[in-house]
Amino acid sequence: MTAAGWVDRQLRRRGIDDERVLAAMARVPRELFVPEHARAHAYDDAALSIGHRQTISQPYVVACTCQALGLTGDERVLDVGTGSGYQAAVLSELAAEVVSIERVPELAARARESLAAAGYLDVDLRVGDGSAGVPDRAPFAAIAVGAAARRPPPSLLEQLEPGGRLVAPVGGPGMQRLVLIERTAEGFATRRLADVRFVPLVEGVR
Q1: Distance separating alpha carbons of residues 124 and 145, to the nearest angstrom
Q2: Contact criterion met (CB below 8 Å) for 33 and 86
Q3: Whole-angstrom distance between the N-terminal and C-terminal Cα of the chain?
Q4: What domains can be seen in the chain, in order of their start residue?
Q5: Catalytic residues
Q6: Side-chain half-sphere of 198: how many Cα atoms within 13 Å?
Q7: What's the rounded mean pLDDT across residues 182-192?
Q8: For residues 59 and 197, what is the distance between their CA atoms, to the nearest angstrom?
Q9: What is the structure's pLDDT at 4?
Q10: Whose CA is closest to 111, among 88, 131, 95?
Q11: Are 26 and 3 in contact (CB under 8 A)?
Q12: Within 10 Å of residue 186's Cβ, how many Cβ atoms?
């Protein structure tokens, strides 16, 4: 399937209309971020296991997250839960700086290799507790969270700059809500985006 084909079928027809996001999704070679045995399914409209009880999110969810962040190209972005590295690569197409944090060292090492193979050498990839964010690189214009919690960790909200946006799955095990949280002068405004299913956000490093 051509890049244009899957992007039109899975993304554009489902309401993703940010042309920068659509172009970024078409450019990133998703097959480099999935296990070799699953590469035939790299562009399926589904999450895929990457080991360590983690997944690479389905393309639509990544696109929905990126569209909601409203990136213009000059932002510093935090990607919480690197996983495969795929979302960090897409964000690299859309922002000036990407900082990504992963608690599982083996996944971080594999993601670093995948990002390098795909040509995304500038991602600042850390191993650590994603719920704590990356204070030494804060504040961030945007934060994308790739695992679910009952509420977004306060540390991440604190690392948003004024007007900054955070997209995260919120809820318990099973189905959650993908929400957009924007930091305003009055506090934090929340908007629901979609129903989703993510692995849980785990605090601490193994």
Answers
A1: 16
A2: yes
A3: 39
A4: 3-196 (3.40.50.150)
A5: 57
A6: 29
A7: 95
A8: 13
A9: 65
A10: 88
A11: yes
A12: 6
Reference 131, options 150, 145, 112, 110; nearest CA is 145
In the numeric block, the tokens 């929340």 are attached to: 190
- CA–CA dist 162, 186 (Å, integer): 10
Q: How many residues does the chain have?
A: 206
Query: At 48, which amino acid appears?
Result: L
Rounded CA separation 74/12 (Å):
24
Q: At which residue do the structure tokens 């389905």 appear?
A: 58
| pLDDT tens digits, 102-157 | 999 999 999 999 999 999 999 999 999 999 999 999 999 999 999 889 999 999 99
3-state secondary structure the chain: CCHHHHHHHHCHHHCCCCHHHHHHHHHCCHHHHCCHHHHHHCCCCCCEEEECCEEECCHHHHHHHHHHHCCCCCCEEEEECCCCCHHHHHHHHHCCEEEEEECCHHHHHHHHHHHHHHCCCCCEEEECCHHHCCHHHCCEEEEEECCEECCCCHHHHHCEEEEEEEEEEECCCCCEEEEEEEEECCEEEEEEEEEECCCECCCCCC
